[in-house]
Amino acid sequence: MSAPADEREHHAASAALDPYAEHRTQRPARFLYALNPLVKLAAPLPLMVVVMFSRGIALPLAFIVFAAAVLLIGARLPGRAVAALFLGIPIAALVLGVSFGVWIDPSSVADHPAASVTLVSIGDWDFTLAAYVVGFATGLRILAILLLSLIAGVTSTGTEFVRSMVQNLRVPYRLGYTALAALRFVPRFGHELEIIRAAHRVRGTEVGRGPVAAVRRALGYIVPLLASAIRHAERVALAMDARAFGAHRTRTERHLSPWRVRDTVFVACFLAVGIVITVLTWGR
Amino acid sequence: MLPAPLLDLDRVSIRHEGAEAATPVDVSFEVGRGEVVLILGPSGCGKSTLTLALDGLVPHAVPAALEGTVRVAGLDTSEHPVGVLSEHVAMVFQDPDAQIVTGTVLDEVCFAPENQLAPASEVLERAERALKLVGLWDRRAENPDTLSGGGRQRLAIACALAMAAPVLVLDEPTANLDPAGIDEVYAVLRELASERDHAVVLVEHNLDAAVDIVDRVIVLDASGRLVIDGPAREVLRERADELVALGVWLPVSTLAAMRLRDAGVVLDPLPLSPAELASALDALPSLPAPLSESSPVRSTALSPRPTLSMGAATGALAVVGETAIRARDLSVRRGGRRGPIVVEGVDLDVAAGDFLAIVGTNGAGKTSLLQALAGVIPAPRGAVEVLGVDPARCAARERARRIGFVFQNPEHQFIAPTVAEELAQGLRLQGVPEADAAPRVEAMLTRFGLEGLRDQHPFLLSGGQKRRLSVGTALIAGAPVLALDEPTFGQDRARASELLDMLRGLNDDGTTVLVVTHDLQLVADYASHIAVMSDGRLLGVGPTVEVLAGPLVEQAGLRHPPLARATRGLARHTAWHAVTRMSQLPVSSRAAS
Q1: Which of B81, B114, B415 sits opposite A203 (nearest CB)?
Q2: Inter-chain CB proximity B115 and A246 less than 8 Å
Q3: CA torsion A105→A107→A108→A109, rounded to 10°?
């Protein structure tokens, strides 16, 4: 497999992509960590749908504040993440406003009260405040959905999700744990692709520019990558078989992930707040 | 009635789907508790296939037909699923990375007992015992990726032990490891063997590491038939000639003693380890003088029979003695400008005609150095010069005319649908007209024994053919310098020997060869010069004999090759202290003439 000297790089790459990175030492004593991982996905999900179909600025903004508050209270975030929450989110919203705004058809916002305020004009194209406001709202919706999904994302690991899907949703364990094992392939194949690209460069395949040559090059990477992927997957499958994977209908769970009263309470409270926010801000 | 043996094979033949002949054929043996059995045989004899049959993977998970019966603790494997059989047999495979499926060391060891439905408390108990035995208990919370190769293979052994099966089957467990990793794994296996709790079945070609822990040897011949089954030390000593004739690899010390016996120096019994060889040599009152470096006698640990070299036909392509590669203050970062420094401040000159081996432990920066020298990864401007150009900054065709690079896995480099096209591609890059290219492709096909395969898809070649083709593609543009990254990694001795003999042939014809490797006996036998790396720095570079006689190898955290270990400590024969390669051993006057 990896050339020894490349190993450090390989490790660095896989650490960045480590889907298992448990909160290994003592678990932080914040309430989100004590909840069933499915709860943290199930509660925000309806709210994400509401955000998706909303219009205007008030509703997504309110949900951003709500989700950020839950994260700040319920999770132990590193200092950098807190800074990103307070600085990064507003900046991202402002920037997204521009990048979505320029794509908006001016005629569709012509009857908006701010349509007459032109911010920039290039030739006969005007970037109006109305376009910016609509773009800004779109940006806010995306950020709200992102923050709502972070509630689950930052406080539970891939392993925990699979564990509770197997235990609470009766997803077959063969499927869940195989998917988890397959996550290991991602950094491995990324690393392998690097090597293949270098190997092809040495053969002089970088001649030719433009999209056609690029597609041809990419096709050339597929065969060796696929060959080694299949071989690797076969070996992993043999190793899992040899370790009795799939031998019984269930497997021992060392960590139970039950659905407790507090999980139901969290869902109820979360949705209640969500409904209140929706009622107060819908259409504004 | 006696209890059933742990493993009982009766006339077992296995034929892979699509294969013409069955290997192994008609194999019968039993394995009892506490035995440590080594299975030997030339490559292709079906050793690995046989191990897959021991826990039912053949026929249940691998498409192959099994004849005869394999009984595991009395259970016929063809009638019981792998899951049931895995209660009795645990497996460890060659590639440590292909055995890891979870995110932490502890989860990994618990994986099998959890599948076996052991109660949670027992799962943890077994995991703790297994991890303590392999010395990984303190690292149980870590991601397995952070372990070294040897560490990951020890983890695989712990995973097998946690299954609480009385039989442990290991298929080439150290083939992908560096010397330090091999030592780690054998330290664990030695402890297991001494506890006598498990029966161990081992397939291993590195006999120097395995010989002192096995009690019994089973030998298959090239067609897959069982030819020898007996106590390890007796078989290896008394039937050594028979084993060599079968194409089975023996410990380097044994091969050296057989060489000496042919030269009239009889060591009886044959030594199996460097220590035994040393004490046998010291027991002799006198020894003939070893051959000098410049003698034309050729022999290596891979092909120990002495032959005379054909006389150097050097100078065909490059002027020998001129500098082919020159590096000054070469530093390399991995992964962009902010990445870690993996090679630091290397000054190196490689003379045309050298056979240079770059050695070091895992992570010492060997591969990065080689890639920077060959322009595969960029080095700082002006740090590297290959025959007058900066290889990372010149056009691909300019580079291909000067230096060829062969990656560890030849498949990575194939870009064409046929073997002939693969070779023609290099000439097209040089702008050679089709009419002129055809005879050169033809010549290359003949040179590497691929004439009959010109229209074959490169991926369908055998392992050895793929390797030869990749060397051919690197050389077709006329490059006088060839760089190879770990060319023998994960290969058995027969294939390693084929490749290295080919490299030596090229080197004899004047090609400058650079290899990265961690097999120091190969280095001792083949390389003219050694560069020793440690922590990204070049500790030193010099002629092979001088480097192996000096302290650099140990400073870099490596162990001397077996022959050097035996001769370094000789009390009586000080003239032999510098003997590190097989070709330095004396030959009989008859063979030398």
Answers
A1: B415
A2: yes
A3: 100
